[in-house]
Amino acid sequence: MTTLGANYQVLTSSNSVTKLIDIAALLGKSMGLALVDCFASSETIGVMKQVVDLGCCIVMANKKPLTSTMEDYDKLVSHPPL
């Protein structure tokens, strides 16, 4: 899909997590990939931490992931190294 010149995909299946991590590993640091989490759940924390480790940015539409442990909070709000 394309909007305003930007390409994006909506991933919804159980294989999506693997596909997302593969994409993040490939494009995270080279393209400035951003993961947008629109779930009203804290169940996405693990995936978000993995993509941050791969150099991606995250955008969260809810605050539940930020109310987890301090370790999770610190990881989610950290800035990737330049």
UniProtKB/TrEMBL annotation:
One of its GO terms (biological process) is aspartate family amino acid biosynthetic process. One of its GO terms (molecular function) is homoserine dehydrogenase activity. The keyword NADP applies. Gene3D superfamilies: NAD(P)-binding Rossmann-like Domain. Signal peptide: none annotated. The keyword Protease does not apply. Keywords: NADP. This is Homoserine dehydrogenase.
